[in-house]
Structure formats: structure tokens, C-alpha cells
Design goal:
Helices cover about 35% and strands about 15% of the residues. The chain starts with about 30 loop residues before the first helix and ends with a helix. Helix 3 (about 145-155) packs across helix 12 and helix 6 crosses helix 15. With about 500 residues, the chain is α+β, with helices and mostly antiparallel strands. Strands 12-19-16-17-14 form a five-stranded mixed β-sheet.
Length: about 500
């Protein structure tokens, strides 16, 4: 979420002269903003700039087209910054790149842009990228915890304090640098900061482990597409290869044809997806007529929510009960696979218990896999380059390519050796669990900050949780999906699984 999400909801406010800051716009003094700053200042606090070693200011104006990684607004999304995908810049004109490069543990803040302004992320990488003029880096002084500071700035209270410094018109808004430097930060004792900061570092550990595991899964299928036949401009198809319902040339691309023939002649078993399906088969989604997106209800997965292996429902919308009932045929169950068929066809996600209840729109299909096979393995195989080549060949359309249902049924799925299938299955399940726990841990860090400021939690309890496993478990059990001591589901339904995966990730 960006800090301007609620901006403009109120324009006439009463404020005390003592509450007036650097800006004079009415939008900077919504009651929620003034309250947040006053609540923070009830703690021992310091201005943000006091905690940062460098002067908080925008990065350089890089020239793109070079080879040096450059972080942009798109890389500062979640609490953990992601260097992928990175743009690259030419830094030959920068006299001292070390001064503007981002180091391990630095914070990044988006200074411009409606919908992204004020987002703060922590960077845990060793690539030392630069930023551009839309992002400021913040190198946290050694006596403060970067994980805690980032969690504070991404909490509801920190975002409201940042929001006061948003200036400009819609579409051209920016953060006032001096305000960013002056926002108050609640200063906790070292153990309390560390307890919250450790949740962020644990999230990064799981994320990095999941990334490595995912690469191993990719490498498992990589030999299938080695030494591909060179692409050709023109080709001839044999009469025996012609399909009764497809006459477009791309359907007979010799690169894919050779790939399939070569695999068929190997020891690897190829099976049409239709032969792997369960009893419910392939079902497409739809958008019910008159459907309205709401804040609660049944999750409605769109193309942007379907990622390789796992759904990302962080920005998913909800549909009401009536709309969900209209789409009962495409409602998903645990271990269903959701496959995108338009827009960006060929990306598959495995549905887990945490995703439910979820339904899909017309740009995806869902299908179940026979109990004879592993849905996790099949999902990984569909996301492999081997199947991607088939998807690209089968996709039809002009500006927007799509897969039809016969093409979905006809995808050739490689079944590797039994032990390999089992390893891939376990790896995929670990990847999904690690990614989910990454989000839960960063959410936990923010909720702990919010509970502390709201008086639901004391600093002494954080200190006790830092030094006692029993106290730590007790605190984690109070975290719910809707807040600290909330009425929702437990944020960590299986703390033992969390600790087990953290141990596995630490061993890598």
C-alpha cells in the first residue's frame, strides 16, 4: 500500500498550532495523521534523519542501457525489496558510485508517484545497485535495527506520519524531503527492536531459500530444452502432423515439434494433460454480470494474481456470495491448479488451504489432478520451459494471445523418474510454504509495531519474547490475520512448521 491511499478523503480539518508541520495543505492534517504523529511522540522518539547515516535525498538521474543494476519504484513494493526484475544503467558518469549504491540492510523509500509514494522496503542483497531519482536510500546507523525501522515505517502509524509530507497534485505528487527527515520514530530498547527486526530477517531467510529451491526445480526440467533446433522463418509440416482444427503455421513450429519428438524418443514419459485430470476436469471462470468487487467475501483471482507455483492474492479483489454462487463450477479447492489462458497464458498456481475461498475470472481455468499423480509436481512441470514452448506454439490471437480448451487438454506433461517427481513435489510445497510464511512474518513485524503504539503490547513483553521461546510462542499465538488479539484466523496456524522451515533454510 502507498501512503496516499486515503489522501483527499478530508479537506477541512481543525488543528492546533503546535500540530502544524512543514506543509500547509489541508490534506496533510487529516485527523488520522495528526493522531498518529501525537501517538508516536508519546514514546521516546527521534527524527528519522537522526537514525540514518547518510542524508535522506533522491538518488541520481541514471542513463539507462548500461550493465549496472538500478532499482526503480517497481522494486520497492513489499517490505522486502526485490532486485528482480532490475533495469540497468550506465554509471560511467558517476564519480563515486559507492556513495549512491545500496548496501545490505539499507532502506529504500519511494519519493514520487501516485499509488507508490511513501512505500519503504529493506534491501538484503550484495549486488550494490544504485537507485534513480524517485527513490531515496537510507543507511541505518549501527545502533538501530533496520528490520524494526522498516516495520515501523510500513506500519499504519508510520505510513500516516509519512503521509503528512505528500505534496503536489494527483499524478505528480512527491514526498517533501525535509518532512521525511523529520518524521518521528518511536525508539525502543535494543532487545525489543531486535525481536521485531528478527521477524523481517527470518522472512528474508525464507524468501532467499524459496528462491534457491525454485531455481533447483527449474534446473531439474532444464535438460529437456537443451540444444533446441534453431528457429526458422519458413517451414513445412508433414501431412501426418496436421491437426483437424488448427491450420495456423505457428502450430507446426519445427522447434517445438523437434522438442516433442526428441523427448518421445527418450526414456522420459510424456502424458497429455487430459490423461492426468481428476473427476472435475478443466473449468473456465467468468465475471458475473453486474458483479461488484467488495472488501470481503470470496477471493477473485485475476491474471495478475496467478504466479508461477503460487497465487499472490495480496491485491486480489472479492466478490459477493451471489456472484460466487453463479461461478460455483469454477470455485477452487485445495490442490487445484489455476492456469492462465489469456493475457499471459501458461502460468500455473497450486491452490492451498490458505488461498480459500477463491474463484477465478474468464482469463484462467482451474482443474484438479488425479490422485495417482502429484498436483505439486504437475504444477511445476506446467511452469517449465518445456511446457512453455508448447503454450507459445498453441496460443492464438492477435494483440492478445490465448489458449483454447483443446490446447490446454493437449499439453504434453513430462513425467520424470519417480524419485525426481517426489523431490520436486516436496520442493514445491516447501517453496509455497516459505513464500507464505515470508508474507506472514513481515505482516507480524508490522502488527507488533501497531500493537505496541496502540497499547495492546508492552515493550517489556517484546523483551521477554526475545529471550524466551515460551514467551515468543505466546506472542505469536496472539497474532491474527486481522490484527493483534483480533477475531480472525491465527496468522501462524502452525508455529512448529515455521520453526522447522526456518531451520531448514538456515542449513542451506
Amino acid at each position: 500500500m502507498s501512503v496516499d491511499k486515503q489522501r483527499g478523503t478530508r479537506h477541512i480539518n481543525r488543528v492546533k498550532p503546535s500540530d502544524i508541520g512543514l506543509l500547509w495543505s489541508a490534506q496533510s492534517y487529516r485527523p488520522a495523521i495528526t493522531k498518529a504523529i501525537n501517538e508516536i511522540k508519546a514514546f521516546n522518539w527521534l527524527p528519522l534523519q537522526t537514525l540514518i547515516a547518510n542524508t535522506i535525498s533522491p538518488g541520481p538521474h541514471p542513463k539507462y542501457g548500461g550493465t549496472y543494476p538500478c532499482l526503480k519504484t517497481k522494486n520497492v513494493q513489499d517490505l522486502l525489496a526485490d532486485i528482480s526484475p532490475a533495469d540497468h544503467a550506465d554509471i560511467s558518469s558517476i564519480k563515486d558510485s559507492s556513495r549512491v549504491s545500496v548496501k545490505y540492510g539499507d532502506l529504500l523509500i519511494n519519493l514520487t508517484g501516485a499509488g507508490s509514494i511513501g512505500r519503504v522496503s529493506v534491501f538484503y542483497g550484495d549486488q550494490k545497485p544504485i537507485t534513480n531519482q524517485h527513490i531515496a536510500k537510507m543507511t541505518v546507523k549501527p545502533q538501530y535495527d533496520e528490520g524494526y525501522l522498516c516495520s515501523f515505517l510500513r506500519s499504519w502509524w508510520g505510513e500516516r506520519a509519512l503521509e503528512q509530507g505528500v505534496a503536489g497534485s494527483t499524478g505528480q505528487i512527491n514526498m517533501v524531503n525535509e518532512h521525511v527527515r523529520s518524521i518521528p520514530v518511536a525508539i525502543l530498547s535494543d532487545p525489543a527492536q531486535k525481536y521485531i527486526g528478527d521477524k523481517v530477517r527470518q522472512a528474508e531467510r525464507l524468501r532467499a531459500w524459496a528462491k534457491d529451491l525454485n531455481q533447483e526445480v527449474t534446473n531439474t526440467f532444464a535438460p529437456l530444452t537443451q540444444n533446441l533446433k534453431p528457429k526458422q522463418t519458413f517451414w513445412r509440416a508433414k501431412k501426418a502432423e496436421l491437426s483437424p482444427y488448427r491450420i495456423n503455421p505457428k502450430q507446426y513450429d519445427p522447434v517445438v515439434t523437434d522438442l516433442l519428438h526428441r523427448t518421445e524418443n527418450s526414456t522420459i514419459r510424456l502424458v497429455r494433460l487430459s490423461a492426468l485430470l481428476g473427476e472435475r476436469g478443466v473449468t473456465g471462470g467468468a465475471t458475473p454480470k453486474g458483479a461488484k468487487y467488495i472488501d470481503q467475501g470470496t477471493l477473485f483471482a485475476r491474471v495478475q494474481n496467478v504466479k508461477a507455483l503460487q497465487l499472490d492474492l495480496s491485491d486480489a479483489v472479492y466478490i459477493d456470495k451471489n456472484s460466487d454462487q453463479q461461478l460455483a463450477r469454477s470455485r477452487c479447492m485445495v490442490n487445484d491448479i489455476i492456469l492462465t489462458i489469456t493475457g499471459y497464458p501458461g502460468t500455473a498456481s497450486l491452490v492451498t488451504e490458505q488461498d480459500l475461498p477463491v474463484n477465478i475470472n474468464q482469463h484462467s481455468v482451474r482443474f484438479d489432478i488425479s490422485p495417482k499423480y502429484s498436483a505439486a509436481y504437475i504444477c511445476a512441470a506446467i511452469n517449465s520451459d518445456f511446457v512453455k514452448h508448447q503454450v507459445n506454439r498453441a496460443s492464438i490471437g492477435g494483440t492478445r494471445e490465448a489458449l483454447d480448451y483443446p490446447s490446454v487438454h493437449g499439453l504434453q506433461i513430462p513425467l520424470l523418474g519417480e524419485q525426481t517427481q517426489q523431490w520436486v513435489e516436496h520442493a514445491v510445497l516447501d517453496i509455497i510454504s516459505a513464500r507464505q510464511l515470508t508474507k506472514q512474518l513481515t505482516q507480524a513485524a508490522k502488527l507488533l509495531v501497531e500493537a505496541l503504539i496502540e497499547g495492546q503490547l508492552t515493550e517489556q513483553q517484546l523483551i521477554q519474547a526475545e529471550s524466551s521461546e515460551t514467551a515468543n510462542h505466546a506472542l505469536l499465538e496472539r497474532l491474527k490475520t486481522d490484527g493483534f488479539d483480533g477475531k480472525g484466523e491465527p496468522l501462524f496456524p502452525d508455529i512448529d512448521q515455521l520453526e522447522q522451515l526456518l531451520e531448514e533454510a538456515a542449513d542451506q
